[in-house]
Design brief:
CATH superfamily: Divalent-metal-dependent TIM barrel enzymes
CATH architecture: Alpha-Beta Barrel
Largest sheet: 8 strands, parallel
Helix content: 40-55%
Length: about 290
């Protein structure tokens, strides 16, 4: 069966050591480390000491790819430091955002300058044997995501498919049909699919799968048709970004154990669909 995992910034503990210990005690073997300023290497060390596998990390996020100046230069330098750290710990993939922020904080429009900055990061990552996976975000920033994906055709830049963002912001666009052949990483979470332009980020709830309105049967059906073989990675926040607050009255361990059950259900669904296809193809062949 496909491996499953969960993000480190899930709020299930008072500090990163407790969060990682809780993840391990809940039965997870894989984590996605979300890099934080001054915390990244500490998190990687603790995860490895606990015997946790890190199939991919999540780099820092900013709008500073698109604006010239000191903040852009500092952001590029910071990403390079994080990619070098990723290489040091032999982690093969890093998730990247093209933008960051609410709709009213939208980055500058896509531009050749910003594209060249991302090319610089792609080439630096390639030299360090780290692949980058660009994540689909909200509707206002989709033009940045599409601009980068359509203009950087390089094996070192792939796709991080975020199912929650897709169904909340862009359900009318078949992202897996368009970019599924470039998929390197996955984020799985749920929400109420109730975003409209002008709403803020609190609609992006990052709930447990099956607690919202996303049709995960359809999501897994489309994912099973791709060549994705990496970890099915949850990206959850126990302390929800907005309403409803479903997890205030359960413990961190209870939340994590339930998360593992949910994502294992998704893995079983995906494995079952792939086996069905193999059996069907075998019958057609003979």
């Amino acid at each position: 069966m496909l491996e499953v995992g969960i993000n480190t910034n899930n709020e299930c503990g008072k500090d990163i050591k407790q969060i990682l210990t809780n993840i391990k005690n809940a039965g997870f073997n894989n984590v996605m480390v979300a890099y934080k300023v001054g915390k990244a290497e500490e998190t990687l060390k603790i995860a490895r000491e606990l015997g946790l596998n890190i199939p991919f990390v999540h780099l820092s996020i900013s709008n500073n790819f698109w604006a010239k100046g000191k903040e852009n230069e500092m952001f590029i330098a910071n990403l390079k430091e994080q990619i070098a750290l990723t290489k040091q710990y032999n982690i093969p993939i890093a998730v990247l955002h093209a933008t960051h922020g609410r709709a009213e904080q939208l980055a500058l429009p896509p531009s050749e300058f910003g594209l060249n900055c991302i090319w610089e990061i792609v080439n630096f990552a390639k030299k360090n044997n780290v692949k980058l996976a660009l994540e689909n975000l909200d509707q206002p920033s989709f033009k940045h995501f599409k601009y980068v994906m359509d203009n950087i055709s390089d094996n070192n830049l792939g796709f991080c498919y975020d199912a929650g963002h897709h169904q909340l912001y862009l359900p009318h666009i078949d992202l897996l049909k368009k970019y599924g052949d470039r998929i390197l990483a996955i984020h799985l979470h749920d929400n109420l699919m109730d975003w409209m332009y002008g709403y803020d980020w609190t609609r992006d709830l990052h709930m447990l799968p099956f607690d919202g309105k996303i049709n995960y049967k359809n999501i897994i059906k489309k994912l099973s048709a791709t060549n994705y073989q990496n970890v099915l990675m949850l990206e959850l926040h126990k302390d929800n970004c907005g309403e409803p607050r479903l997890y205030d009255n359960i413990t961190d361990i209870e939340f994590l154990k339930e998360a593992k059950k949910r994502v294992e259900t998704l893995a079983e669904m995906m494995e079952g669909l792939r086996m069905d296809k193999i059996r069907k193809d075998s019958k057609l062949k003979y």
